[in-house]
UniProtKB/TrEMBL annotation:
GTP binds at residues 57-60, 85-86, 128-133, 171. Gene3D superfamilies: 1.10.1580.10, P-loop containing nucleotide triphosphate hydrolases. Residues 11-175 form the CP-type G domain. GO terms for cellular component: cytoplasm. This is Ribosome biogenesis GTPase A. PANTHER family: MITOCHONDRIAL RIBOSOME-ASSOCIATED GTPASE 1. Signal peptide: none annotated.
Length: 277
């Protein structure tokens, strides 16, 4: 069972709860490729009745048709959802529109009281979903720390954007994954440090998903003639095509696993969604 819950995450959860009263709306950033697994189940209990908008980040890496299905799914739950690409800034206008829609009553009250109708929001999400990159795109500078490893942001801090004031928070996971599949999905996308994982096991789970939903992407990327049934054999076939060979011609499946995961995470295989609503 995959687990990763550093001490600072427990502290961050308490700080998020205590600061909720300071904000009007919560922006929950999830990975568009795994909208279910990248949602911390504790968030519903933490946020409670606070207004919320789900930002489906890394939408450029996800299957657009599937992402649209997720947006409809969340809307069916009474939650606004917006597609976002934090690197290019795609979706920022839609976020502002969704915010004004969700917080219309709050804006009206501020106006009636003679207050400046400026909203305060809080960013929450699991590690490595792109919270800091999103904030930097909003403000047009690199004030929030970013990195391709989970756990870069460690403290809460306020940031002023052209649209609203934002409270940035560290990525928080939860102490125990009840569903092993959730841990695997987070591991595939890089939300959990590779150093604590069985990389070959994670890669084999990715192979199984790609074989089922996106076999043509595998065949195209790795010049494979046909998709074999056995996942490990398919991983070895990828290794052969990539020249990952050991002595006596054996395939280096560990090196192959790293290559496959890196190709997926960087979008080199194509636009892929690992979960469907």
């Amino acid at each position: 069972m995959i687990q990763w819950y550093p001490g600072h995450m427990a502290k961050s959860k308490k700080e998020i709860v205590s600061n909720l009263k300071l904000v009007d709306v919560v922006y929950e950033i999830v990975d568009a490729r795994i909208p279910k697994s990248s949602r911390n189940p504790d968030i519903d209990d933490i946020v409670k009745n606070k207004k919320r908008i789900i930002l489906l980040n890394k939408a450029d890496l996800a299957d657009d048709v599937i992402t649209d299905l997720w947006i409809e799914y969340f809307k069916g739950k009474g939650i606004e959802a917006v597609k976002v690409n934090s690197i290019t800034g795609f979706g920022l206008k839609e976020i502002n529109e969704a915010t004004n829609k969700v917080c219309q009553d709050i804006l009206e009250k501020k106006k009636q009281k003679g207050m400046i109708p400026r909203l305060r929001g809080m960013i929450v999400g699991v590690p490595n979903v792109g919270k800091s990159t999103f904030i930097n795109k909003l403000i047009g500078s690199k004030r929030a720390k970013t990195g391709d490893k989970p756990g870069v942001t460690r403290a809460l801090h306020w940031i002023k954007t052209p649209y609203f004031d934002l409270l940035d928070t560290p990525g928080i996971l939860w102490p125990k994954f009840d569903d092993k599949k959730v841990g695997i999905m987070l591991a595939i996308t890089g939300a959990i440090k590779d150093e604590i994982l069985d990389i070959e096991e994670i890669a084999l789970n990715l192979v199984a998903i790609l074989k089922k939903y996106y076999p043509n992407y595998l065949m195209s990327r790795y010049k494979i003639d046909k998709i074999v049934n056995e996942d490990f054999e398919l991983l070895k076939e990828i290794g052969k095509k990539r020249g990952c060979l050991l002595a006596r011609g054996e395939v280096d499946t560990l090196k192959t696993s790293h290559i496959l995961l890196e190709d997926f995470r960087k979008g080199k295989l194509g636009r892929i969604s690992l979960e469907r609503p």
